[in-house]
Amino acid sequence: MAKVFSPTVKDKKDRVMGNEEKAPLTAMQFDSLLTLPDTTSNDDWPLSKTHRRLVDHLIDNTNLTSEEILDTIKMDTLSTTDYFVRNQFIKIGQESKASFLNYILRQIPIIIFFILPVYALLLKLFFWRKGLYIKHLIHSLHLHAFYFFLMGWVWVFALLIEDFEDWGLNIAVLITFIYAVISFKRVYKIKMRWCIFRALCIGFIYTIALGMVLGVGILISLALI
């Protein structure tokens, strides 16, 4: 995961996970916790509270890699799956919130690109006799391009106007919906009330599908960090 900037002491306190204000462990306390057995349960998986405390200490006070941290807390003999999961968990925990958010945001356009055919399929289902699938795919690309065009302007104005992004996103969605209704009217030649109804139905189904795909896509992205 590419960091936005090199982590400082302040960034380490603003980590994604385990950034509670706690005094550093002494060498004796560290060794004492290290001798305790692994008591990981479903409630604190993938790391027990003891191991999480050790990991937090090592992240905050050393520059060890995730693999070196696992080796230090004697978890390098786990099965391949358990080792992979804990290693990824520690990698995410090492990131500052800014770096982690930046990484997630970079993945979203890629994920949305792969869901474009799904939106085209919805258009095909709701406008079954209005052309071949490729026509709906082109229409899907056009609507998404329009939305990203608006989002670009939202981010530009967000740099100039404080708190613009919060309500600017809602405006972009509303304008895109109106644009979609108008495009349905012009492309598919149907009555306006049916354009609005179908746009609402497609938007509802697409929002659910998009949420599911984004969730799976982000999980896959995190697994590839």
Describe the structure using short key phrases.
225 residues, mainly alpha, 72% helix, disordered N terminus
Distance between the termini: 5 Å
The radius of gyration computed from the alpha-carbon positions, rounded to a whole number of angstroms, is 24 Å
Roughly what is the average pLDDT, rounded to an integer? Answer: 79
Count of DSSP strands: 0
Topology:
Layout: H1 9-13, H2 27-34, H3 49-61, H4 66-72, H5 80-94, H6 97-126, H7 133-160, H8 164-188, H9 192-223
Helix pairs in contact: 4-5, 6-7, 6-9, 7-8, 8-9
Folded structure, characterized:
With 225 residues, the protein is mainly α. It has nine helices and no strands. Helix 6 crosses helix 9 and helix 8 crosses helix 9. The longest helix is centred in the last third of the chain and has 32 residues. The chain is elongated, with a radius of gyration of 24 Å. The N and C termini lie close together (5 Å).
Give a brief description:
The protein is mainly α. It has 9 helices and no strands.
